[in-house]
Amino acid sequence: MKRHIAFLAAAGGLLLGGPAAADGGRLMPAQVPPMYAQECGACHTPYAPGLLPARSWQRLMGGLGRHYGTEAALDAAATQQIERWLLAHAGTYKRVAEEPPQDRITRSAWFERKHRRVAAATWQLPSVKSAANCSACHAGAERGVFDDDALTLPAGLSAQQRRAWHD
């Protein structure tokens, strides 16, 4: 009987943990369309689709002519291909269920909570530039890896900021 219960518990763990384990805990799907990496990655980190809910991605893709002050329009086929992929992999879990103001990842409640102790001056450093530059501190950002234990200190931090980083 104990063996049967242990087997069921192990099988349940595999079923529930399988999707996360399959990608090694990454938010970025293993298969990223080259067009997404090329077109979106030309201007910014190609964000993991799981960082925003589907409605946010729909609005972003529908407004590429005015993408945060930049004209980023693509041809219809490219837009459709990228949008389909983003929607298929959009965030559905509790953390990203809400649509952040202006559909900005950096304005989402979870982002603000995770980065609440980052000094405003840090975002202004030449090595960081803005909160949207995930790669400045998260070396695995382009792969969708945001492990707190693998953060890198951005260049230009003062001694006080470096100490606070580890608190």
Please explain how this structure is put together.
There is one protein chain. With 167 residues, this protein is mainly α. It has one domain (26-165). It contains 7 helices and no strands. The protein has helices spanning 2-22, 34-41, 54-62, 76-88, 109-114, 120-124, 159-165.
* Amount of helix: 40-55%
Through-space gap between termini = 48 Å
Count of strand segments: 0
Secondary-structure element string? HHHHHHH
Shape: globular
Strand residue percentage: under 5%
Largest sheet: none
Mean pLDDT figure: 82
What is the SS-derived class? mainly alpha
Kindly give the count of domains.
Answer: 1
Quaternary class: single chain
Number of helices: 7
Radius of gyration: 19 Å
Signal peptide: 1-22
Protein name: Cytochrome C
InterPro entries: Dihaem_cytochrome-c (IPR018588), Multihaem_cyt_sf (IPR036280)
Keywords: Signal
Give a quick summary of the entry:
The protein is mainly alpha-helical and 167 residues long. It is built from seven helices and no strands.
Key features of this structure:
Cytochrome C, Multihaem_cyt_sf, signal, Dihaem_cytochrome-c
Topology:
Elements: H1 2-22, H2 34-41, H3 54-62, H4 76-88, H5 109-114, H6 120-124, H7 159-165
